[in-house]
Automatic annotation (TrEMBL):
Residues 25-218 form the L-asparaginase N-terminal domain. It comes from Hymenobacter aquaticus. The lineage of its organism: Bacteria, Pseudomonadati, Bacteroidota, Cytophagia, Cytophagales. Residues 235-350 form the Asparaginase/glutaminase C-terminal domain. Belongs to the asparaginase 1 family. This is asparaginase. It comes from the Bacteria. One of its GO terms (biological process) is aspartate family amino acid metabolic process. InterPro entries: AsnA_fam, Asp/glu_Ase-like_sf, Asparaginase/glutaminase-like, Asparaginase/glutaminase_AS1, Asparaginase/glutaminase_AS2, Asparaginase_C, L-asparaginase_C, L-asparaginase_I. Pfam families: Asparaginase (PF00710), Asparaginase_C (PF17763).
Length: 362
């Protein structure tokens, strides 16, 4: 998708309200199953936003002003790119002051990557950006699109009752009944409705009859103004270890021309082979300036370099412990931090640091 900041706005005017509603949300429709239909070959393909608008007349019954920015060509999220994330961040920046909150309708396959990327790009976010979508298209009788979208809209404008301040100033994912921090989300289901989980951080809210917020887990409102970053470095790779991996494979990956960063998916609490050839590959890569971030293949738990002999040497080789970060948040963090263009030392320091709540540090 190409994301021009000047996409035409579609307004959804509320019915039956004489006074102008007090709140407003910008929906950015990128595609995904939520708006898909079957083509002649029986494959699901993304449709225009009009499809969702027609199938969800209730959007006009909400007591809020809704505007929609729809990509000219909505996509299956398997096609999303880092350029699209920069485009999404720029769109939010361009419309930031005009809306109380933002909902990004997105395919579920890469939603966790996109939400994590946006969490880094939107520094000092003081409004709510909710990613949501569906497992079943909006036109199907058992669709989850309605519930997900309507609740996401509610969350996007949620305020603390007394102070009136923004309740969730974060990039987050709402799906099924959970509101999860965007850079903690992981797609765990392709067949059930509860597609996302956050293993290492509690949900920010749970939606039952009411939305119950877990205010203590939500990030504080920033005191500085929004700062939108404009660079991501795509010269990165994910290298997943497995018993039997060969030197040839590890070398081929780490010696990719121009590579700047690698998420190394290790075992357990961050353990890796101690074979001399393996350690030499890491040493060589580090000396060529490749930043290596150690992330566990376990969904729950923490990287602790030095707990076992099999992870002790990694620290000496300059490998950075990724704590309890997800692979999705780690690869996008690498892209973001490398995109800042800092010195190797400063880059390593930022990679080890908690930037947007993506790791539990300390
Ligand atoms: N393939 C779809 C997508 O990510 C899956 C979905 O949205 N449920 O765009």
């Amino acid at each position: 998708m190409a994301l021009p900041v000047t996409l035409p706005l579609i307004d959804i005017t509320p019915v039956g309200t004489s006074a102008r509603p007090a709140t407003s949300v910008l929906i950015i429709y990128t595609g995904g199953t939520v708006g898909m239909e079957y083509n002649k070959r029986g494959e699901l393909v993304p449709m225009k936003f009009e499809q969702i608008r027609k199938k969800m007349p209730e959007l006009r019954q909400l007591n809020m002003n809704l505007s929609v920015l729809s990509l000219p060509e909505p996509i299956d999220s398997s096609n999303v790119t880092a350029t699209d994330w920069l485009g999404l961040a720029a769109l939010i920046e361009a419309h930031y002051s005009a809306y109380d909150g933002f909902v990004v309708l997105h395919g579920t396959d890469t939603m966790a990557y996109s939400a994590a990327a946006l969490s880094y790009l939107l520094e000092n976010l003081g409004k709510t950006v909710v990613f949501t979508g569906a497992q079943v298209p909006v036109g199907r009788i058992r669709t989850d699109a309605r519930r997900n979208l309507v609740t996401a809209l509610d969350i996007a404008v949620a305020r603390h009752s007394k102070a009136g301040t923004v309740r969730v100033p974060e990039v987050c994912v709402f799906f099924n009944d959970l509101l999860i921090r965007g850079n903690r989300a992981k797609k765990v289901e392709s067949e059930q409705y509860n597609a996302f989980r956050s293993e290492n951080y509690p949900p920010l809210a749970r939606a039952g009859i009411e939305v119950e917020y877990n205010d203590k887990q939500v990030r504080h409102l920033p005191s500085a103004p929004l700062r939108v970053h404009q660079h991501l470095n795509e010269r990165v790779v994910i290298l997943k270890l497995f018993p039997g991996i060969t030197e040839q494979v590890v070398r081929a990956v780490l010696e990719v021309d121009g590579l700047r960063g690698c998420v190394l998916e290790t075992y357990g609490s961050g353990n890796a082979p101690t074979a001399p050839w393996f350690l030499q590959c890491l040493r060589d890569a580090h000396q060529r300036g490749v930043q290596i971030l150690n992330v566990s293949q376990c969904e729950e738990g923490h990287v602790i370099q030095g707990q076992y002999e099999t992870s002790s040497q990694l620290t000496d080789l300059g490998v950075i412990g990724g704590e309890d970060i997800t692979t999705e948040a780690a690869i996008t963090k690498l892209m973001f931090v490398l995109g800042l263009g800092r010195s190797p030392k400063e880059t390593a320091r930022l990679l080890a640091q908690d930037l947007r709540g993506e790791i539990t540090s300390g």
